[in-house]
Amino acid sequence: MSSNYHLIPQNVNTPFQRSSGEVCDNLTPLLPEEGTDSEVGDETPPSSFCGELQILHASPYSQTERFGFIMGFGTGRYPMRYYWIATAVLAAVALAIGLLIGFLAAPSGGGETPGNPPTERPPSETYQAWLDALKGEDEWVTEKLLEVLDAKKIEEHLRSLTRVPNLAGTSVDKDTAYYVRDEFNKYGLDSVEVVPYEVLLSYPDIENPNYVYVLNSDGEEEFKSQAFEKALTPEENRTDIVPPFNAYAVNGDVEGQLVYVNYARLEDFLYLERNLSVNITGKIVISRYGKIYRGDKSNHAEMFGAAGLILYSDPADYAVDSVTDVYPDTWWLPGSGVQRGTLFLDIGDPLTPGYPSLDTAFREEEEDIRLPKIPVHPIGYDDALKLLEQIGGTRAPDSWQGKMDLTYNIGPEMKDNKTVRLEVNNVNQKNYTYTTIGYIKGSLEPDRYVILGNHRDAWVFGSLDPSSGTACMLELARAFKILIDEHGWRPRRTIVFCSWGAEEYGLIGSNEWIEENIKALSKKAVLYMNVDTAVQGNHVFRARSSPALYKAIYDATKKVTDPSERSKSVFENWIDKSPGSDGQPSIGTLGAGSDYASFMDLVGISALDFRYTYDSALGISSYPLYHSMYETFHLAKGILDPDFEYHLAVTQVWAELARSFADSLILPFNCEDYGIKMEESMDEIKRNSEAMMKERGFDLDNFYTALEEYKEAAKNFHAYIDNLETVDPFEVRSINDKLMYLERSFIDPLGLPDRLLNRHVVFAPSSKNTYFGDAFPGLLDGMFDIDNLGEPEATEQWKLVEKHVSVLTYFVHGAAKTLKEVFQDG
Question: Could you write out the DSSP letters of every residue in 414-478?
């Protein structure tokens, strides 16, 4: 709808004429009343104009024509051609007079004279605002921003954040939320708030600990696992450390034979069932940590009928060099170390799926929500050895063999008819968790949000996950405010700093905040930048993101020096040690491993996550001390990053990325990379499934046609941007809207098949491993194990696959249209 406001004479025949005879008595007539000195011929002028402001859909007349109506032209007395003749004559006269005045007013010799500069009228505030809206970023900002960031201050924050355990829902959760708030206020952020959410959390019963037992043939206890980890330094010698447990595991006391299931992946269970004819039903299974999300391990065990699940960290994955050269001397996990973690498969507060956990929210009953249905408990590899050495039966395949001094057998037979007992006593309860939000208001586009985030809660001390990221974000907020206060700079767009609560339980704090603010975020959020763990190694930079952000990440890393090789940039070291197939550094796909998930998957806000990491050649799934009591300040300072150089490098990359999106005239998204990634991903699916597709008479031709349309639209759109003369801030705004809304065009409000709250049709968490992301996840889910289905199930499943491909084709076609002008053909 046009927002032009017009005052229209009542006697003029226009599409916007009010009903005849209607008069606005409260307005002074804009034309003389009847009988005054004004003469317009024989026709009586209208006695008044209706002065009501009308929002008109459109006007078929130009502003000059409407003025002609007011002067009486085109109303019957004077044809409009007379008006145009009069206008031309007056314009010529005005031009002549102007030239004459200019000639007479010019100083002798022409131009300005020394000591007598020409007088210029300063631009109006409106004109100045127009110029400001077209101003690009200041080149000096990057250099100054990277310069003021201080590694020592990051270290100080990390030391403060890791003094005590910070479990979600405890008093420390609130204390650290207010610590972050106080720091933001000290820096002088424009606005700071702490947002509480009451959510369902899970804890072990301290008075009734969880245990794993080995029982002899008479049912007598031969072995009992440790309830707590052993303190190895004074730092860990505390009484407020939560013992190892798996959040949301159901309470239970089960006994039975033990089956070794490798990593408890779906393919591991299928191998046992199809190749070894091992029946899992009623058995307790033991799995090593790694490869996939622990919640998926629990879900798979439940699917195959297991009575319970025991998780442990094998030295093959967590003490690769040696089981003797371990923490506190190195970063390898000692035998007493245990990884805690949630088993929740969904995202957000379990009791309010899809809606924020406000005081007014309806809450589901626990028995009606998707929580684990079998007891699950984690142990260290010292205890796991006592269990695994009791298992008989078939020897496990070579690829299933771990690194402890025994032969790994499958079971379910146990030596001397022994059995295993698993006792879990957890408590689910509603507690408050706290999210802290700080804002730096944008100068020109305050309604566009560049969002930065990191969670604050940890299972114990959390020196790497998450406090390394929290410390970096606090220093980043301080640096941005220095540029504002001391250098007169302010970002074009608003920067939002988010410190999330209860991420470890299922991304709860971020998801609830997004659900509460989803309408505003869908309109105003530019992107989300997540740094969960800033440093989990000191080998190379690692990133995962939407393809639209690849180029921006590359550009930012080119401006930061790499800590390991000062002669190189982060980018140069990254491409040397982790090259991708396209000649650029490798960037992974986002899953649901951290707080970016709901931004990307629920709303369609482009997101990224990055950190410094370890050498992938180690073959490990996470850093060894992950979620254990030994993830301490000593690990960060004493072992991984003594001078906090890697923390600083991550903060500098984060700073430059935030600056570029908050201050660039044109947002640095790249739509063409999106098309390339979609094509690569679908090509891989096609290669792996082409034979099955041909057998069914099924193809992807329509999808590839839509993809070509998208690629052409993206190419033309960026060519237009490259040649743009930035003279119109409204056009700049329109271009930026297309760039930031591209990700939204892949959001299906109906969700993926059987996954209502996973709405991104191109990228979403894998249904087999929640930590990692799949490209075209709905298609992969539909085709998984489809060749092993009988009839009529196979035919029905292929129909679902065909339907989903049509959905993908529709969304790719729709994304192409968002990059074109309205009504543009082709």
Answer: BGGG-EEEEEE-EEEEEEEEEEEEEEE--SSEEEEEEEEEEE---SS--TTTTHHHHHHHHHHHH
Cα 734 to chain centroid distance, Å, stands at 23
Q: How far is CA 276 from the centre of its chain?
A: 42
Give the dihedral sign, CA 343/348/353/354.
Answer: negative
Radius of gyration of the chain (CA): 33
pLDDT value at residue 766: 80
Tell me the pairing of strands 426-440 and 493-500: antiparallel
> Residue 290: beta bridge partners?
292
Rounded Cα distance between 741 and 252, Å, is 48
The model's pTM is 0.84
Cα dist from 393 to 116, 280, 417, whole Å: 102, 14, 12
β-pair type (191-204, 426-440)? antiparallel
Report helix, strand or coil for 806: helix
Give the residue with greater pLDDT, 82 vs 698: 698
CB of 326 within 8 A of CB of 229? no
Q: Looking at 120-240, list the stretches that DSSP marks H as alpha helix, in order from N- to C-terminal side.
A: 125-133, 140-148, 151-161, 171-187
Phi-psi region for residue 630, left (φ > 0), alpha (ψ -120 to 50) or beta? alpha
Instruction: Collapse the DSSP code of 792 into the 3-class scheme (helix H, G, I; strand E, B; otherwise coil) and give the result.
Output: coil
Higher pLDDT: 102 or 318? It is 318
Phi (first) and psi of residue 368, to 5 degrees? -100, 0
587-612: pLDDT as tens digits: 999 998 999 999 999 999 999 999 99
With a cut of 50, say whether residue 427 has pLDDT above it: yes
Per the DSSP assignment, residues forming a β-bridge with 541 are: 612
Matching residue, tokens 């110029």: 131
Phi, psi of 264 (to 5 degrees): 60, 30
CA 154 centroid distance within chain: 24
- Summarize pLDDT for 145-199 with one digit per residue, the tens: 999 999 999 999 999 999 999 999 999 999 999 999 999 999 999 999 999 999 9
Place of tokens 């941007």: 721
Nearest alpha carbon to residue 533 among 627, 392, 423: 627
Burial class (CB in 10 A: 0-12, 13-18, 19+), 386: middle
